[in-house]
Amino acid sequence: MAAPDENLKEFFPKYNPPIRPHKHTCVGLGMEVMKCLKVLEKDFPGITKSMMLVSCDENIQDLVDYTTSCPGPQGFLIETEKDHVMVACHVRVDGRPGVFLSDLGYHISRVVTVMADRCYPHTGWFTQSDEPHCKKEYNYQFNLHNCNYVEWHERETRGDKVKERLSLVYVARAYLSAVQVTEKRNLVWDMKSLLARNPKGHLTAGIYFISKQKDTQLTMIFDGHNGKQRKKFKFETFLEVQKGKVEGKRSRGRSPTRWTDIIKATTQASIVQCSRNANDRNKWRRIAGAAVAKENVPSSTKSERLRRRIV
Questions:
Q1: Per-residue buried b or exposed e for 114-150, using 16+ beta carbons within 10 Å of the residue's own CB
Q2: Is 14 exposed, middle or buried (0-12, 13-18, 19+ CB in 10 A)?
C-alpha cells in the first residue's frame, strides 16, 4: 500500500517499523531474549522485572567528557547516537553489585557478567572470534567515573595491526525508545546484511552490500571445502540478470545464465546443495525451490557499527 505522504521526509517520522519474527535486528533480538527468559521466573523470582533493554553509544571518542558531563545520556539531547541495543539484568553477588549483559545483536553467544569491583564472577577479556584474517576480543567493565555506564572495549587484530574501539552502555534505566529510534535508524543505514551464524556466534554464511549510487558491490560469504570463502560481485550484475540482460559463457544459441548458475559457479555447489547444508532446512528448501523454478532473481552502513558485526 502506498503511503499518503508525498516524500520520505514527511513519511519517515510517522513510520512505526514492525518487529517481525525471525527477521531481527538488535532491537528484535533483545525483545526475543527477554521473552524467552521469562520461563525462568519460576526458578528465579523477579528476573522478569529485572530484565530491560538498554541503549549503547558506539565509538566514543572522549570517555571522561561523556561520562562526567551528565548522569546519563538524556542530558545530551540530540548528541547521542543510540546506535545499538542489548539486554541487561542487574544482580547482586554476596551483596556486590553487577549486571548481566546479553548482546545477540553482535552475535555474542555468552551472557557477560560485569561486576562493579571487577572481581569474580566478572567475565573480563574474552575472545569473541578468531579467524585467520581477524581476531576480535571484548571486555566489559563499569566506568570508574560514572557507574551508570558500562564500558565496552573491543580489540581487533588483523596481522600485525591492532585497532581498539570503545562504546558505552547506559545500564541505569531501561531504554524505552528502541523501536522508535534505534530500529528506525537501522533502516536508513547504507550497509545491508543478511547473515547466518552458528550457536557460538560464528559466521557461517551471508551476504552484505553498501548502498551507493555507483560501483556497489555485493559480498557473499560461505563455508567451502577450503574454509570460509568470500566472493565479491558487482551489484549491477544481479540487476542485469534480473532484467534478462546477462548471457552466460555458453555455446551460441543456448539460454542465458541464471542467477542460480552464478551461485553454483562461485560456491562449487548448487543452491539446492547449499540448502541441504543449511541449518534452517525447511526455509532454505523453499528458497531453493523458488529460485530454481524461476529464470530471474525475485525482486526484493557503510557504518562502522555494522562492519564490526561481519567477521
A1: bbbeeeeebbbeeebbeeeeebbbbbbbbbeebebbb
A2: exposed
Find the helix packing angle between 259-267 and 235-242, rounded to 10°: 140
pLDDT at res. 187: 83
Torsion of CA 29, 186, 128, 231, to 10 degrees: 120
Residue length, the chain?
Answer: 311
Strands 203-210 and 51-57, sheet pairing: unpaired
- What local confidence, expressed as pLDDT, does residue 60 receive? 92
Q: How confident is the model at residue 300 (pLDDT cuts 50, 70, 90)?
A: very low
What is the average per-residue pLDDT within 184-198? 86
Taking only the tens place, the pLDDT of each residue in 210-221 is 887 667 888 999
Burial label for 298, CB within 10 Å (0-12, 13-18, 19+), is: exposed
3-class DSSP state for residue 311?
A: coil
Which residues in 106-265 belong to E strands, given as ranges? 112-115, 126-130, 135-142, 149-158, 161-170, 191-197, 203-210, 217-224, 227-234
SS3 20: coil
| pLDDT given at position 76 | 61
Which residue bears the cell 574501539? 165
pTM, entire model:
0.74
Q: Following DSSP, what letter does each residue of 24-36 receive, concatenated?
A: --HHHHHHHHHHH
**Structural Rg of the chain based on CA atoms:** 22
Residue 86 has a CB neighbour count (10 Å cut-off) of 26
Residue showing cell 540448502: 275
Instruction: Give the SS3 label for residue 55.
Output: strand
Per-residue pLDDT tens over the stretch 224-243: 788 888 888 887 777 766 66
Exposed / middle / buried, residue 27 (Cβ in 10 Å: 0-12, 13-18, 19+): buried
